[in-house]
UniProtKB/TrEMBL annotation:
PANTHER family, sorted: HYPOTHETICAL MEMBRANE SPANNING PROTEIN (PTHR30590:SF3), INNER MEMBRANE PROTEIN (PTHR30590)
Protein name: Putative membrane protein
Keywords in alphabetical order: Membrane, Transmembrane, Transmembrane helix
Domain DUF418: 227-356
Domain Heparan-alpha-glucosaminide N-acetyltransferase catalytic: 24-209
Positions of transmembrane segments: 65-84, 96-115, 146-164, 184-201, 213-236, 256-276, 296-314, 326-345
Coiled coil: none
Amino acid sequence: MASASAVTTSPVGRAWARFDGPGRLVGVDLARGLAVLGMLAAHLLDTERRLTLDPDTWVTLVNGRSSILFATLAGVSIALVTGGSRPIGPERRPRAGARLALRGAMLWVIGMLLVATGVPVYVILPAYALLFVLALPFLGMRARGLFVTAGVLALVMPWIQPVLDAAPIWAGRAGAEIAAAVGWNYPFTVWIAFLLAGMGVGRLDLRRLDVQAALVTAGGALLLAGYGAALATAPAVAGRPYLAAVLTAEDHSSGLWEVIGSGGFALATIGVCLLVCRTPLRWVAVPLRAVGSMPLTAYVLQLVVWALVALALLGDTGDLYGIREAGLFLPLTLGLVAGCTIWALTLGRGPLEWLIDLVVKLVVGRDAAARPASPDGASGSGGVGGPR
C-alpha cells in the first residue's frame, strides 16, 4: 500500500493520474490532438487540390474540417466545465460566466500576438475567444435545446453570411486588421452553430456506448447529406454568385453544405475517437492524446516555432511556399508530439493551460463545486475532459 501511495503522490504518478485517470474522457483528448495536427497539416502541406478517390489527395481532408472540429470541441469543453450532462444552476452561472469570459479575453490576446508574428495562417484564437463569450447565454441549456439552436443557426446563417462578407467594413482602411481581430475567416455568425453543437455533445453522457455510436451515426448521416447535396446542387448554382456562395461545401466558405457536411464530420470524429479509446488502441494513441491534453500550448508552439524557423531560414515569416518547400511539417509534427508526450507524462498540464487557469483562479476565484475542466485544453468526465 505504501508503495502504491508513493507512486500516486509522486510528480510522475500525479501527471499520469491526470492524463489517464478514470475521470478523464481520453477520447476527447484524442479528437483534440487530431484537430491540432490537422490544422498544422493544412498549413504546411500541399492541400490545395481537389479531393478525389486518389489517396494522394486525401490530405485535403484536413482543410477546414480540422478547424471546425476544433471549434466543436470548444463547445464540448464549455459544456463539460459547466456541469456536463447536468448544467450548473443559476446561482453558479455568473462565476462560471466570468471565468469563461476571462479565458476568452486571454485567448484573444494570445491570438493577436500570434497574428503579429506574420505567419501566413488565419489564426483561430480570436474567433475562439469570441465564441467563448457568445456561449455565455447558453450555459444553462440542455442537450436538446442546444442541438435545436445549433441546427437552426446552421440552416439560416449561411444564407446571411454572403451579405455580411460583402459589408463595406472589410474593404475599409482597417478592414484586414478588424477581420484578424474578430477571426472573420472563422465567422462567429456561422461558427456559433459548431460551438453550440459541441455544447450539446458535452451535455450528453459521453461514457455510454450508445451515445458514442449515435454520434458516429448522426455525424455520418450529416456528412453524407451535406457533401451529397453539394454535388447535387452544383450544376444548378453555376453562374449564380449568391447561390454559389450559399450552396457550397468549399473549405472555409461557411456555405450551407460545408456547415452540414463538415459539422457532421466533426461529430462523427468525436464519436469514433471515443469508441477507439474504449479499446487497447487508447495506448497506441497516447502521443496524440498528449497533444490533445494541451491543445492551446501545442497550437501556439507550432506557430511560434514556424515563425522562428522561417525567420532564420528565409528571413521572412510570411513566405508560405518557402516554408513548405523547407519541409517543416514532419520535424515540427514529430517534435510537437514528442514534446507534448514527455511533458504530459512527467509534468502534467500544458504550460499555457496552467497559466490561464492560474490567472482565472487569481482574478475570479475557484468554484469549489464546479468540475475542474478547462475549455482551453483540459479534459475529463464533464468537459474537454472532466475531473482530474
